[in-house]
Automatic annotation (TrEMBL), chain B:
GO terms for molecular function: NADH dehydrogenase (quinone) (non-electrogenic) activity; NADH dehydrogenase (ubiquinone) activity; quinone binding. HAMAP family: NDH1_NuoC. GO terms for cellular component: plasma membrane. This is NADH-quinone oxidoreductase subunit C. It comes from Nakamurella multipartita (strain ATCC 700099 / DSM 44233 / CIP 104796 / JCM 9543 / NBRC 105858 / Y-104) (Microsphaera multipartita). Residues 134-255 form the NADH:ubiquinone oxidoreductase 30kDa subunit domain. It catalyses: a quinone + NADH + 5 H(+)(in) = a quinol + NAD(+) + 4 H(+)(out). It comes from the Bacteria. It is found in: Cell membrane.
Amino acid sequence: MTQDQARFAEDFLPPDEQDTATMRRARATDTTEGRMFTVTGGDWEDLLADNEFEHDERIIINMGPQHPSTHGVLRLILELEGETVVQARSVIGYLHTGIEKSCEYRTWTQGVTFVTRADYLSPAFNEAVYCMAVEKLLAIEVPERAQVIRVLLMELTRITSHLVALATGGMELGALTGMTAGFREREEGLHLMEFLTGLRMNMAFIRPGGVAQDLPENATERIAAFIKIMEERLPEYDKLLTGQPIWKARTVGVGLLPLEGCMQLGITGPILRSAGLPWDLRKTMPYCGYETYDFEVPTLTEGDCYARFLLRLAEIHESLKIMKQCNERLRQPGPVMVGDPKIGWPAQLSIGSDGMGNSLEYIRKIMGQSMESLIHHFKLVTEGFHVPAGQAYVGIENPRGELGCHVVSGGGTRPWRVHLRDPGFVNLQAMPAMSEGSMIADVVAAVASIDPVMGGVDR
Amino acid sequence: MTTPSGTGPAAQPDRTSVDTPAEKPSGTTTDATPQGGAHAGDVARPEQALHHPSSPVPTTGLERTGMFGAHGSGDTSGYGLLISEPYTPAPAERPYGGWFDEVADALLAAMHERSIPPLALLQTTVANGEITFYIHRDFLTVMLWAIRDDESLRFELASSISGVDYGEGVPKRLHVVYELTSMTYRRRIRLEVAVDVDDAHVPSAVAVYPTADWHEREIWDMFGIVFSGHPGLTRILMPDDWLGHPQRKDYPLGGIPVEYKGAEIAAPDQRRSYS
C-alpha cells in the first residue's frame, strides 16, 4: 500500500497488525454508484477524521433488512438531504418461502398448513380465505356453527394482530410501555387461541368444509373471561397513548396519505378508512354471515398515523362486540364440518392416555366395524378429495385490508395454483408516498402505521 | 406412459409424447380471430378448442388419465385407460344472471363508445358465481381504462393481479388474471389474458391502476411475463441475479429426500401423486 492510498491510521501499522484493525474501522469504497461508506463495526469518527471525506449532505442509507424499526426483514433505501427523505424505496423478498408453489405439491387440505404461515400475525384469515375459495370451487355450504367458529377465530386474530401493531409501532416510536402492554394483552389472546384450537398461531384449524373439530367444553366461559379482561385493560391504552403529547407529536400529521392516493395505490384496511372511506369487506361484501352481526366500521378523515392508531384501537372494541355475539350463538350445538363424507375430514380428535389422537370410538369403528369407513379415511387422508376444474377468487377483510385468495384447480386432488393477495404487499407500495419529503424519523412512524407483516408480503 | 399432472416438473417432459397437440406457432394471441359468444356451441367442446388453432380461450389444464389417480404401478383394473379431457372454460349463454348481464351490457356499450372492436372481448364465462372476461392482449389497456372510468362500470380497485401457468403442452399456457372490484357498485369481475410462453408480453396496467406495479413485478419474477410499459420491471421476491421463473410448472420445486426411521421419503415433487 502506498502513502497516497492510505486513508486510515491503521494503514500505517505493520502488515500483520493491519488485518485486525481493518475489521474494526469504517471504510469508504469507490463503486460504480459513487462512494460507499460502511461503518459496520466501526465509527463515523474514522470517516470524518479523513481529509478526503467530502462533507456531502446527500447520502443514501440502507435501513434494514435487519433493523429493529423496519418491522421484520424489510429493507428501506432512503436518499437523504440532511435529515429529509428525498426518495424512499422498499426492497422486499427476504422472507420469500415459496408458499404458493409448495401448495401445488400437497392436497387441498394440506394447503391450509402452508397458507396459515404466510401472514403469521393473522393466520385465521389466511386459512379462512383459502378454505372459502376452495369451498367456492366445490360449491359447498359450510354449516352454521362452523361459520360462527370461523368468525370468532378471525375476530380474536384481528385483536391480537392489532395489539402487535400497537405494540411494535409503539416500540419503534419509543413508547416501550406500549410494547409491553400490547404483548401482555396479545398473550391473553394467544392463550385463548391455544385453548380453542390447540395452537397459539398457525393453527390450521379452519379446513375446507368447516373447521377441524368442535370447540372444547368451557369454551364460552373462557371466551367471556377474555372479553372481560380486554374490556378492563383497553382503557389503559387510551391513558397510555391516545392523549399523550409525545405520542401525538410523533404521529399527528405524519405519514399522510389522502383518499385519492389510497384509491390509486389500491390501499385497503385501516389506512383507507383513516382517509375517510368506510370500506370494510365485512360490511360492503359480507361473507361468513357478517351481515347478521351488529358492529360498526370506525372511520376517520385525517389520513395520518395517529388516525390509523385510533382506528386500530376502535376496531379492537368492535371485534370484542362481535366475539360476544359469537359466544351467544355458540350455545347452539351443531355440526362443524360438511356432511359429505367424500370431503369432510373423517376423524375427531380426543385426548387419550398417550396424548392427542383419533378418538377410541372412531378407531373401533374403522378397524372393527366398517370397512367402508376405513377406505374413506385412507382415501381422504392419503389422496385427498377432487376439486372440480376452474378458478375462484375470494376477498375478506383481514387486519391490514383486503386479503384475497385466487385458486385454480385442474380437477385433481392438488391445487393447480394458489395466489394470496396480501394487503401488506399492496399497502407497502404506499411507503414512498407517505414518507418522501418528511424527516427520517417519520419514515419509521409511516411504516409502523402501514403495519406490514413480511411473512405475508413475501409469502 | 403418462405422468400425473401434479407429479412435478422433473417428470413432465414426458407430457409432450401424449397426443395433446403441441403449441402451434400460429397460436399466438395476435392471430386469434374474433369469436366472442357467437361460437358458443363449438368452444364448449374441449377437443374442438384444442384442435382449433384460433380458438379464443385455449384449454386450461392437462388431460388426466385413470380413475384412481395412482400411476406407475401395475394396473389390471382397466380403469387406467380412462382419459378425462382437459378443462376448457365454456362461454356463458345469455342471460348470465344477476348483475352479470348489466355489467356485460355496460361493457359492450363502453367498448362501442370508445371504438374498441368487438374482437377485444374474446369470451365471457360465468362459473362459480363469478364472471370472467377473456380479453385480447392488444386491447387490454383500453379495456381497463373503459372498465375503470365508465360511469356504469367503475371498477376502481384492482384487487389482485396474478399469473397462472397451465403447464407445458398447453397452448397459450401463461395467463394473467385481473380481479377488479367496483367500490361504487360493490361488484367483482375477472379479466384474463392468455399468452404464449415464447411471446410472453402483456401491456402493463400501471398507468390505469398504479397498484399494479408490484403485482406485475411479482408476475414477471415468478412467471417471466413481460409487462410492456411498466416503469421498472425488476424482480421483487427473488434476488436480482436469479435465473428462471420459479412458479412456472417446468421449474422444479426442489427439496431433498428425508430419512425417517431408516426409510427414505422422497422430496415433495418426486413422491407418488394421486392427481
